[in-house]
Write a structure and sequence with these properties.
It is a single chain. With 114 residues, this protein is of the alpha+beta class. The protein has one domain. The chain is built from three helices and four strands, in the order ββββααα. It has a four-stranded mixed β-sheet. Strand 1 and strand 2 form a beta hairpin. The longest helix is centred in the middle third of the chain and has 23 residues. It is globular and about 40 Å long.
């Protein structure tokens, strides 16, 4: 089931499996959440990409889109090869920048603590 919400001057569209940001349209999934201390960190992360899009304008697809797609491809190959999720997907550019923009703190142990 797909649901949507307008917030932060964006249209957030919840899907079953996809997390991607296309300018004002932010597609996210609860299955993409990584941290139990955030309600919807996949949504937050994709919002970070939408901010990157606003910052970079027409360069977004070159600077963010291509590296992000390459990281997705590598993550999928890693999963096929080692049968585990690539642990460094969010550690590198541009994913780590999207996390920083949206306020995601991976080392957080519980809300309000670092």
């Amino acid at each position: 089931m797909v649901s949507y919400e307008r917030s932060q001057n964006r249209l957030f569209i919840e899907t079953e499996k996809t997390g991607v940001s296309l300018g004002w349209f932010v597609f996210w999934t609860k299955s993409g959440n990584r941290f139990p201390w955030y309600k919807n960190d996949c949504r937050m992360h994709e919002y970070g990409h939408s901010v990157q899009s606003r910052i970079l304008g027409p360069f977004y697809l070159i600077v963010i889109g291509i590296p992000s797609l390459l990281r997705v491809w590598y993550r999928n190959q890693y999963l096929k090869t080692y049968r585990i999720t690539w642990p460094n997907y969010y550690a590198g550019f541009p994913e780590n920048w999207a996390d920083r923009i949206s306020g995601i703190k991976p080392g957080l142990k519980s809300p309000g603590k670092q």
